[in-house]
Write a structure and sequence with these properties.
Layout (H helix, E strand, L loop, with lengths): L7 E4 L6 H16 L6 E5 L4 E4 L16 E3 L6 E4 L3 E7 L2 H4 L3 H18 L5 E3 L2 E6 L6 E11 L2 E9 L19 E2 L11 H16 L10
Parallel strand pairs: 1-2, 3-4, 9-11
Antiparallel strand pairs: 2-6, 3-5, 6-10, 7-8, 8-9, 9-10
Helix pairs in contact: 3-4
Length: about 220
């Protein structure tokens, strides 16, 4: 099956304030649930800020840079967003695609890994750790983060791929609660490229992601 066409793709070139993005995403998810809008993938960038998921600990946020801080309402812990990072908000109806959140998360991880492969970077999952990783041993580092919420079986939030952010900003938190490993980016790995190239890779890899989600009859 191939359901790319019914899904609306939005790309915001200018940074979108976090509160504004949350309001748009919540409204769109509600409209999807009520049958008044198409499913949506929204690619965007945020101004520099920190967000905390529902499992975050206050001690993980030092915020010595004094950046804005937002409670995100998603799963996960603390993370940073800012210019040079491609955010992907994924608003899909799991009533149509299988009410299996674990399958959805696994497929989303695979989508990011496939996207990075399109860009010449070998990435992987790490057992017991959230996110997508590159390298091995002491050089292993996180290159992409995931944070999700499912509301009335519609997904919200999504992923963040580090393209060329200011990596020093991650020093204001313990990213996703994992202090033992560093954070990296495509640029830090010698893969400097325009954001449009990253977006192309995200779209190219999307078909394999969406086709792993089972369509089922709506469950009442």
């Amino acid at each position: 099956m191939d359901d790319i066409d019914p899904i609306e793709w939005l790309i915001s070139e200018a940074p979108v304030p976090y509160g504004e993005a949350l309001a748009v995403m919540e409204g769109r998810a509600a409209a999807i649930r009520d049958g008044n809008a198409r499913e949506c993938i929204w690619l965007l960038v945020h101004p520099p800020l920190f967000t905390a998921g529902t499992s975050a600990y206050p001690a993980e946020l030092s915020n010595h840079l004094g950046l804005p801080f937002h409670a995100a309402g998603r799963g996960g812990r603390s993370t940073y967003h800012g210019p040079g990072q491609r955010i992907g908000y994924v608003m899909l109806d799991l009533d149509r695609r299988g009410r299996d959140v674990r399958r959805f998360v696994h497929a989303l991880e695979g989508w990011i890994i496939a996207t990075l492969a399109e860009l010449g970077v070998a990435a992987h999952r790490a057992p017991g750790r959230i996110g997508i990783w590159v390298g091995e041993g002491p050089a292993e580092a996180k290159i992409a983060a995931l944070g999700l919420r499912v509301k009335r079986w519609v997904t919200l939030h999504g992923f963040a791929i580090n393209v060329a952010p200011d990596l020093t900003h991650f020093g204001g938190i313990v990213p996703c609660g994992i202090a033992e490993f560093g954070v990296t980016s495509l640029a830090a790995l010698g893969r400097e490229m325009p954001m449009a190239r990253v977006d192309d890779a995200i779209l190219t890899s999307f078909a394999s992601f969406i086709n792993t989600l089972a369509k089922t009859d709506k469950v009442s």
